[in-house]
Amino acid sequence: MAKCGVFPASSTLACVLSACGNASSFLLGVEIHGLILKWGFCSNEFISSALITFYSVSKHMDDATKVFSSLVLNKNVVIWTAFLTAYGSNNKHDESLRVFANMFRSGIIPNQSSFSGRYTLQQSS
Question: Which residues does UniProt call coiled coil (predicted)?
């Protein structure tokens, strides 16, 4: 695609990352992450949340944390909820609760998805 001068939309990249996570195609997902960096899509909230989710589904929470930490100015409710859910889906409930508390401290008001993720974590503890 890119060789022909056609670049994917951010929604396409987010879907590809999701597919990589679901298909356990970690190396392909990392390659897609490299393209995202190269093409300058890093500040897109949906791609950033897809990267966090991809790395968490792939059981690479250190990489998910690096993506989250690299977003200095763009941490909105979508990003925070992806990060919160990432810890919960990896059975790291204490860390997830810490993220939830930090979300409040940062002035981000959780949405329904944030509370759903938090409630699910509480039920599985």
Answer: none
Domain containing 32 equals 2-124
Write the CATH number for 70.
Answer: 1.25.40.10
Say how many domains are in the chain. Answer: 1
87-106 pLDDT per residue, tens:
988 889 899 889 989 998 99
pTM equals 0.86
Say if residues 48 and 65 touch (Cβ distance below 8 Å).
Answer: no
